Structure formats: structure tokens, C-alpha cells
Amino acid sequence: MSSGPRDGDRVALTFHGQGGADVAEALLAGAAAAGARITVLAVGTWLDEQPDIARRILDAGHELGNHTLTHRNISAMGADAAYAEIAGCAERLERLTGSRGRWLRPSQAEYCTPTLTAQARRAGYEHCLGYDVDSLDYTDPGPAAVRRNVMDRIRPGSVVSLHFGHHGTVLALPDILRDLEARGLRAVTASELFS
Question: Concatenated DSSP letters for the chain?
């Protein structure tokens, strides 16, 4: 799933979960200040490094999902290796929160291939979450470029790919959220977008 209903006022801001705790906390605070709800697709090794972050994300009213165990190129893996990546992160999510989360976003891939979809289902995920707007924030182009990359492409139902771990994203988020409000759009979790 890479976009939701186009006839509403909702968009999903989805974040690849990894990087420093300070950036994660700043992004969560920015979302809270605007009343936005986000979806964080966590990397399993990041959860190992910062086990408290999963609960903080959920306690703030956001959604948490799976972005594989080590964030390697999952599309280049065989079925069993891909399953191990998905299941390894799912195990950490379940241990930390009591839930595997609803969504899987494949690492280093925009969409799930049929092989990845099968392995996601094997690990308990009915849904792979793609995106139709790439902020390119992971290239560190600066906050103005991140904002422009999002706002030039976003429309009702969009799923936006953003990343924890990048200071430009922290600086761009307040402007993105103000721009969304000015366009009559609101940031919701992926589950809310697709409900």
C-alpha cells in the first residue's frame, strides 16, 4: 500500500526509525506540538540500542511498525533471510510493546515484492507499507529541500517517507505540518489513513 483514499483530508507521515535519541525525541515533540500523529517503522537494532523509545512512541499516540532487523537490502535476500530480518524486528517489537505492529516497510525498498509479501505474511504482517512521496531527507539536503520535496508532491491520501536520525528533518517538520494545515490536510497514522 503506497497511498490511501484521495478524496479525504488525511496523509500519513511515516518515519524510518533509527538514529540518535535526541533527534527522535525532537521529532516526537514537533509532532505533538502540532497535534499530528505519525507512524514510525523501527529498525530492530535501533530498538536494541534504545529500548525505551518504542513505548514513548506508542504512549504519545503514534503508531509503531517493522522496518526489518538490520536495515540491509531486503530485496536482494532469499526468502529465508528476508523472513529472518522481518521476524527479528517483530520479535523485538513484541517483547518491548506486546505487539508486532500492523505494518512492515521493507528496508531499502519502496515496495514489497511478491517474495517479501509472502515472508511478511509468514511473520504475521498482512500489510506492506510503501509510500508515494519521498522526502529524500536521508540525503541531508537541508530543511528547505526536505519541505519542498514533501509539499511539491503531497496530496490527500499520500504516504510520506521521512527518517529519524536527520537534523534537517527535525527543522523541516514544523513547516511541513503548518503547510499541511494551510492546505486543509492533517497528519494521521497509517492505520488511520487506511481505515
Answer: --B--TTSSEEEEEEEE-S-HHHHHHHHHHHHHHT---EEEE-HHHHHH-THHHHHHHHTT-EEEE--SS---GGGS-HHHHHHHHHHHHHHHHHHHS---SEE--TT-SS--HHHHHHHHHTT-SEE---SEE--GGG---HHHHHHHHHTT--TTBEEEEETT-HHHHHHHHHHHHHHHHTT-EEE-HHHHT-
pTM of the full structure: 0.94
Full domain range(s) for residue 95: 10-193
Tens of pLDDT along 21-72?
A: 999 999 999 999 999 999 999 999 999 999 999 999 999 999 999 999 999 9
CATH number of the structural domain spanning residue 65? 3.20.20.370
3 in a structural domain: no
